[in-house]
Specification:
The structure holds 4 protein chains of 4 kinds. Chain A is an alpha/beta fold. Chain A has 19 helices and 34 strands. Chain A has 5 domains: 123 residues, Rossmann fold (3-Layer(aba) Sandwich); 141 residues, FAD/NAD(P)-binding domain (3-Layer(bba) Sandwich), CATH 3.50.50.60; 58 residues, no CATH class; 165 residues, FAD/NAD(P)-binding domain; 83 residues, 2-Layer Sandwich (Alpha-Beta Plaits), CATH 3.30.70.20. In chain A, 28% of the residues lie in helices and 25% in strands. In chain A, α7 runs parallel beside α16. The longest helix of chain A has 19 residues. Chain A is elongated, with a radius of gyration of 33 Å. In chain C, 41% of the residues lie in helices and 15% in strands. Chain C has a 4-stranded parallel sheet, with helices on both faces. Chain C starts with 7 loop residues before the first strand and ends in a 12-residue tail after the last helix. The C terminus of chain C is likely disordered. In chain D, the strands form 2 sheets. Chain D has a 4-stranded parallel sheet, with helices on both faces. In chain D, strands 6-5-7-8 form a 4-stranded parallel sheet, sandwiched between helices. Chain D is globular, with a radius of gyration of 19 Å. Chain D starts with a strand and ends in a 36-residue tail after the last helix. The C terminus of chain D is likely disordered. The chains are: A alpha/beta, B mainly alpha, C alpha/beta, D alpha/beta. Chains in contact: A-B, A-C, A-D, B-D. Chains A and D meet through β24 of A and loops of D. Bound molecules: flavin-adenine dinucleotide (2 copies) and iron/sulfur cluster (8 copies). One iron/sulfur cluster (SF4) binds next to α9 of chain A.
């Protein structure tokens, strides 16, 4: 038999002036199962709490209802009091007599009656409460960081500096990401590599960081605190432990004309290569798809050249499995190629390039050693046109969103051009200038005021080639929509920043959600910007949305601090408001029919499949099982389950129906 | 479809009527100007294509009338260059088609568009009569309508000499049916979906 | 029955509407006392049978209210809820529930006044409709066991 | 093979050489072109401009007649007619209510059974037959001009690459010509304003002819009577619109229909192809192309 105690609080005058608290307590006392009912002036005060504790001990209460303020205010207080008196804290409920009753209604019988109803509902509920224990999950204190761009580098260093182990996995032969390709960076125009490369070296040397380059995530299992990652280390064809990075092999390589990814196609590289001189690790890989030996079975010039005999043509991919407690996803972005733009020539004009290619032209480490020369004939362009929003804000053909950073880098490009080509003229065709950020507007104004970049407000309709010039046909909507035609030597498209082509695949591997544009979704756009909806997985950088370096780094540090915060404890502990699938003695096992509607309902991937096997190991049934460390307790699955096999602890069907039946 | 836009005096704006009749919202246009930049006739227009849309978007007193009385709507060749490249997929020719018909209905067509209108009307006249275009008939009617007696006189003999002009019109068997099609199409108001009438 | 007082049951989520109703209290905005609130973690938890049960229990009107779409504490919970509400509507309609008696709404934690307005307007509407006698009778009157679910 | 055929009005008159040459090519390829019985004018720009319903009803009558005649596919050589017929079909198939309204007006049933083919689509379909018939490869550098209605609107998708179509280029290459890369493939020639605003047409067409000439084309190839009229018949107006110095260069470049180019390559003599009907005389020496053909779409490399 339940033995419920009811405690009605006056909150001074707050409740007492409107509700007849004594009458409520009396009425509660008459409810079946209630063995104790009192009212008191301030329940949350020490004497008030003692009242409850004593009653629990003396009356051997099996449940407590406090009729007072909002549970959002004092539920923890009273649950703690119960626990101190030896009653499971989850056997305590609160009826909201203040915010939902005395403060919002007139004094009188009706209001008192409502208070009685509210108490009765909770009494019926609490009779059906079960003792629950907070969920505890052990934590593996090692983080996996996916992607070695500035986001991944920053996150890895922050976590490692907090004293935790980090495994950094980068797909390319070197870390660095897009930032390594940039020339100078807005709004300060500091040299990108100068600020990045020291960080890259730090990563390589940090005792807490294990670096896997030329590697990819194969699979991820488990849940917060207890993931197991399998990583594929692609065959470099070079034994890293022997290689000294001398570069002799590269000098001798038979294949020399492969478009360099690092130079965005503007330079050439060899088949055995390091992507750029400051690469980390500075050890080559063989691009097997392009290597003569792998194509024809002959060559091995590199092997002959190598003084340390490090070349390994027979090396195979290697799978490594590691346990980690948290994952930071920092896989970055991609840009649309010029071939995407039909009206700008389907990528057929060599002197129509992307912003990223311009970065390489402007970079001292680039194919032109920082001189602005156009790809077709290596001439210095005297008239250059920058086209903003190329592919962005173009629902018809491109993407609907604003890529956010291109207004700024276009201003930067125009500025760098003006600094390098003194007799040149830069034009920018734009729709809006989006320069929100510290010193950003000032930066754009400088381009206009000091460097005399001519900004034309209008979108370019078409580009075609004539007599070695690129005819750019636009319009100035500020000048009564007058046509503006520029005969340009070089055209730079601020092409859209898009998600990585394999973002969807990766998201599915990680079981995290992504938006319609394949950018990964944070858990909440304002309040949980670095967490993802799968507990224990965090996000940083441009894989979440287009962003510039300052924002990327801020988010990376945010993600790292979340990880470090998590790792500062040995166990995770959470409220046990989670779903459970019922289990019954065989032969029923469970009423779950295995329809897995709940699985589709759950936004957190908390539903797992459990196989029930007979003694002989034969499969009897597959039923749903909730991973309680992942479940957030939203109850969506419960509402969907047609066989009522899954229930939400703390808000079970029985409890909720009991509340209703009390009315 | 877009929200209705009212004029200050409470009458329905042209933008709303356009949306009702064509399903095209002028509010989708974000004034990038790409349409105008590619339009072959923009230089000859009194209002650039994007400006037509802008006037409709603002719908201030007199703006709708300015659009309906413009020469631009008659110059448009329906070449679809603008709509093909428009990032917001605004179907300008479709809107223009409707504006022309509305302009005629209200009798406010631009005076300079007279020749164009005359040509189109003459064109339809010959079809109304025979079911097919009769080029000699077309040119003659057009001349009569515009008094442009001498222009094209130079071309006609060339055509005749090369056996390209048939003097006698061809009449299809179903010409009566075609005539009925004309009658039905012209009987109902040309722009049935237009609701907002102005004083 | 001289003074008919409608009985309203409200299913609300803990994070938005429950908190919103708390704010109504802290702002001392008064509203009709006819409503009884059932607190749930999320509107995703609400199912069709709960609404039926409420009517079976003698409710004259039901309010279902949670976070605004997109603001849900549980990323997707109220999207599920929203889709399901469309389904609920049809189901409730099919079972013969008078749909004028079910109100779906969104009240955020900041919308104290909106909560009061919502309750008042529902109470006024349901008052006009009169007691919902047909429905509980069809189910055998108040106080019966929870409806068994197929 | 048998295809339905809709010649369109101008090919009964000012552009009859287009029809003549098409029929000549078809018959040599053993293809029957079955004219839609009692077809009527598509209404062209005029109907479009003046009365939307009429602009749908006129083509709809012809579509219905084609369907009655049991024609599965109808070849429409004029790209403006193609635009009207295919456009009407598209619009009526996507709007049930409108279809009802229009079929009431034309007093005929219509279900959309007949497909409309533009001339390039059709020629590329039968291009497999060509090699065996080419006896006098058309060894000239040509500028393939598509104009507006073959490439637009997107919904009708007559050409794959909307800004730089290659269907005609592929055809002329198949008969030995060398298509040039140029900038005015899809720029408008002025279309229906030919009579009412000849000056505008002259201005637009002048740019087209100039670019073709400057890039070394020996002829312009078209697939539309309107384009032909504007570029050929209006040549005097074009010259008047050209900057004084450059007129003579623009005077002599001929404009050929794609069917005439194919016909010539098949060894058909000029007269049955209607070459004598052109305003700008077609005088092309039989010299082979000086440069090896470049595939359109390839880079300069
Ligand atoms: C033309 C241009 C100019 C710019 N100029 C500036 C500027 O001046 N100032 C500024 O602040 N910002 C600038 N930016 C923006 C800047 O590049 C980005 O903000 C920044 O690079 C984002 O860093 P990230 O680490 O998130 O992504 P990335 O730099 O893209 O790094 C992602 C890394 O993850 C790796 N990776 C991807 N997928 C996987 C996978 N599945 N597994 C393992 N590894 C993977 C990639 O190989 C890459 O190394 C510019 C951008 C462009 C395009
Ligand atoms: C009109 C307007 C509308 C906005 N709308 C949105 C929106 O829709 N979406 C959005 O994302 N953002 C919006 N914002 C921006 C948003 O308000 C800010 O991003 C956010 O509030 C910043 O939070 P904060 O904590 O940094 O600063 P604040 O909110 O300013 O908090 C700073 C706190 O520090 C206290 N404080 C100050 N000095 C001291 C001191 N010396 N010692 C101790 N305490 C101190 C202050 O009292 C204050 O409580 C809006 C801003 C404005 C002005
Ligand atoms: S428990 Fe709540 S209602 Fe009671 S005195 Fe404390 S604050 Fe007031
Ligand atoms: S074997 Fe391959 S990597 Fe080595 S030198 Fe030859 S081509 Fe280059
Ligand atoms: S030659 Fe050998 S040691 Fe030198 S970089 Fe190449 S693989 Fe490494
Ligand atoms: S940042 Fe500027 S250039 Fe880039 S998409 Fe946005 S508005 Fe266009
Ligand atoms: S919805 Fe219910 S029956 Fe279906 S799998 Fe989930 S728990 Fe089992
Ligand atoms: S309660 Fe919510 S989070 Fe938990 S399993 Fe169910 S749907 Fe998933
Ligand atoms: S191209 Fe489209 S969006 Fe741009 S101005 Fe023209 S109609 Fe408006
Ligand atoms: S359709 Fe009309 S407005 Fe559009 S580009 Fe052609 S002529 Fe200009």
């Amino acid at each position: 038999m339940p033995r419920i105690g009811v405690f009605i609080c006056h909150c001074g005058e707050n409740i007492g002036a409107t509700v007849d608290c004594a009458a409520v307590a009396q009425a509660a006392g008459r409810l079946p199962g209630v063995v104790h009912a009192v009212d008191y002036k301030y329940m949350c005060s020490d004497p008030g709490q003692s009242l409850i504790k004593e009653a629990i001990r003396e009356k051997r209460l099996t449940g407590v209802v406090v009729g007072a303020c909002s549970p959002r205010m004092h539920e923890p207080t009273f649950r703690r009091a119960c626990a101190e008196a030896g009653l499971n804290p989850f056997l305590c409920e609160m009826a909201n007599l203040r915010e939902h009753c005395s403060w919002v209604h007139e004094k009188g019988e009706v209001t008192t009656q409502k208070a009685i109803d509210l108490v009765r509902m909770l009494v019926e509920k609490v009779k059906r409460n079960r003792p629950l224990t907070p969920i505890r999950v052990p934590i593996t204190k090692r983080a996996l960081v996916l992607g070695g761009g500035i986001a991944g580098i920053q996150a890895a260093l922050d976590i490692a500096n907090a004293g935790h182990k980090v495994v950094l996995v980068e797909r390319d032969p070197s870390i660095g990401g897009h930032m390594a390709q940039l020339s100078e960076t807005f709004p300060t125009l500091d040299c990108s590599q100068c600020i990045l490369t020291p960080r890259m070296v730090e990563v390589a040397q940090h005792p807490n960081i294990t670096l896997y380059t030329y590697s990819e995530l194969e699979s991820l299992d488990g849940f917060i605190g207890n993931f197991r990652a399998t990583i594929r280390k692609k065959a470099r064809s070079v034994d890293e432990s022997l290689c000294t990075g001398c570069g002799a092999c590269i000098q001798k390589c038979a294949q020399k004309k492969i478009p360099s990814e690092f130079n965005a196609g503007l330079g050439r590289r060899t088949a055995i290569y390091v992507p750029f001189p400051q690469a980390v690790p500075n050890k080559p890989v063989i691009d097997r798809a392009r290597c003569t030996y792998y194509k024809s079975g002959r060559c091995k010039l590199c092997e002959k050249a190598c003084p340390t005999k490090a070349i390994r043509f027979d090396q195979e991919d290697e799978l490594v499995t590691i346990d980690v407690g948290a994952v930071v996803v920092a896989t970055g972005y991609d840009v649309k190629p010029t071939s995407f733009f039909p009206e700008y020539g389907y990528g057929e004009y060599k002197d129509v390039i992307t912003g990223l290619q311009f970065e390489r032209l402007a970079s001292a480490s680039g194919p032109t050693l920082g001189e602005i020369r156009r790809p077709s004939d290596n001439e210095v362009p005297k008239k250059i046109v920058f086209i903003a929003c190329a592919g962005s804000r173009d629902p018809a053909k491109g993407i609907h969103y604003c890529s956010k950073i291109c207004c700024m880098y276009t201003a930067k490009h125009a500025m760098l051009y003006s600094h390098k080509v003194h007799d040149g003229q830069a034009y920018v065709f734009y729709m809006d200038i989006r320069a929100g950020g510290k010193m950003y507007e000032e930066f754009v104004r400088r381009a206009v005021e000091e460097d005399h970049v001519r900004y034309v407000r209008g979108r370019v309709s078409r580009i075609y080639q004539k007599d070695g010039k690129l005819i750019v046909k636009g319009v100035d909507t500020l000048l009564n929509s007058r046509p503006v035609e520029v005969e340009a030597d070089l055209v730079v498209l601020a092409t859209a920043m898009t998600a990585q082509p394999d973002a969807e695949e990766l998201a599915q591997k990680l079981k995290v959600s992504y938006d319609g544009d394949k950018f990964l979704n944070e858990a909440h756009p304002k309040l949980r910007p670095v967490e993802m909806n799968t507990a224990g997985i965090f996000v940083a950088g441009a894989c979440q949305a287009p962003k510039d370096i300052p924002e990327t780094v801020a988010q990376a540090s945010g993600a790292a601090s979340k990880v470090a915060g998590m790792f500062s404890r040995d166990e995770l502990s959470r409220e046990p408001v989670v779903a459970v699938v019922n289990r019954q003695p065989p032969p029923v096992w469970s009423t779950c029919v295995g329809c897995f509607l709940c699985e589709t309902a759950c936004a957190y991937q908390a539903i797992e499949r459990e196989e029930i096997r007979g003694r002989d190991g034969s499969l009897i049934r597959t039923i749903a099982k909730v991973n309680e460390s992942v479940c957030q307790g939203c109850g969506t699955c419960v509402a969907l389950c047609r066989s009522k096999s899954i229930d939400l602890q703390g808000y079970t069907n029985e409890q909720v129906y009991a509340e209703l039946l009390a009315l | 479809m877009s929200a209705p836009v009212k004029h200050a005096d409470g009458t329905a704006g042209l933008a709303e009527a356009v949306a009702a009749a064509t399903g095209e919202s002028v509010f989708n246009c974000y004034q990038c100007g790409k349409c105008t930049a590619g339009c072959p006739l923009a230089e000859e227009m009194d209002l650039a294509p994007n400006q037509v849309l802008r006037l409709l978007q603002l719908g201030q007193p007199g703006m709708d009338e300015e659009v309906l009385g413009s020469l631009s709507i008659w110059l448009c060749l329906t070449c679809e260059q603008c709509s093909t490249r428009c990032p917001q997929e605004v179907d300008i020719p479709k809107i223009t088609d409707w504006l022309r018909q509305e302009s005629q209905r209200r009798g406010v067509a631009n005076k300079k568009a007279k020749a164009i209108l005359a040509f189109h009307k003459s064109f339809l006249d010959t079809i109304r009569r025979g079911g097919r275009l009769h080029e000699v008939g077309l040119i003659t009617t057009f001349k009569l309508r515009t008094w442009r007696l001498f222009q094209d006189v130079l071309v006609a003999p060339k055509l005749l000499a090369r056996g390209k002009l048939s003097i006698l019109p061809h009449r299809i068997e179903g010409h009566a049916g075609v005539k009925r099609i004309f009658e039905r199409c012209e009987a109902e108001p040309a722009n049935p979906a237009h609701k907002g009438d102005q004083a | 029955m001289a003074e008919y007082e409608p009985k309203i049951i409200a299913f609300v989520c803990n994070w938005c509407t429950y908190a919103g109703a708390d704010l109504t209290g802290t702002s001392r905005i008064h509203y009709a006392p006819n409503v009884r609130v059932v607190r749930l973690p999320c509107t995703g938890r609400i199912d069709f049978m709960l609404i039926l049960q409420a009517f079976g229990q003698g409710a004259d009107g039901v309010i279902v209210s949670g976070c605004h779409p997109g603001d849900c504490h549980y990323t997707a919970g109220n999207f599920h809820a929203r889709r399901r509400w469309m389904l609920f509507r049809r189901l409730l309609d099919f079972v013969g529930v008078d749909m004028r008696r079910v109100t779906f709404s969104w009240v955020s934690a900041a919308e104290g006044a909106k909560w009061a307005e919502l309750v008042n307007s529902v109470v006024a509407d349901v008052r006009k409709l009169g007691p919902y006698e047909e429905f509980p009778q069809r189910l055998g009157g108040p106080g019966q066991k929870p409806i068994e679910v197929a | 093979m048998r295809f339905g055929f809709f010649p369109g009005c101008s090919q009964e008159g000012s552009s009859r050489e287009y029809q003549e040459s098409l029929r000549e090519v078809a018959s040599r390829l053993g293809i029957e072109l079955a004219e839609i019985p009692d077809w009527n004018c598509c209404g062209a720009t005029a109907a479009h401009t003046l009365n939307h319903r009429l602009a749908l009803a006129l083509p709809a009558r012809t579509l219905a007649l084609a369907e009655q005649a049991g024609l599965d596919e109808v070849v429409v050589p004029c790209s403006a007619c193609y635009n009207r017929l295919a456009g009407t079909r598209h619009e009526l198939l996507h709007d049930e209510a409108l279809r009802q309204q229009i079929t009431d007006i034309i007093e005929m049933n219509w279900h959309g059974a007949t497909r409309i083919l533009n001339v390039l689509e059709w020629l590329n379909r039968v291009a497999g037959e060509l090699p065996g018939h080419v006896s006098a490869p058309f060894g000239h550098r040509v500028a393939c001009y598509y104009g507006c209605y073959l490439t637009r609107p997107k919904a009708l998708a007559a050409c794959r690459r909307i800004e730089d179509p290659i269907e005609m280029d592929e055809l002329v290459r198949a008969v030995g010509a060398e298509p040039i890369r140029w900038a005015y493939k899809v720029e408008c020639c002025g279309a229906g304003l030919s009579v009412s605003r000849t000056e505008s047409v002259a201005r637009l067409s002048e740019r087209i002819v100039s670019d073709a000439v400057e890039r070394g084309a020996e002829a312009i190839v078209v697939a539309c009577p309107m384009c032909h009229t504007n570029l050929d018949l209006r040549r005097d107006a074009i010259l008047a619109a050209a900057p004084p110095g450059g007129r003579s260069r623009l005077a002599s470049i001929p404009v050929l229909y794609i069917s005439q180019v194919i016909g010539l390559a098949m060894g058909v003599s000029p007269r049955p192809l209607g070459l004598h009907r052109h305003h700008v005389p077609v005088r092309l020496s039989a010299a082979p192309p000086s440069v090896a053909p470049v595939a359109p779409g390839e880079g300069e490399e």
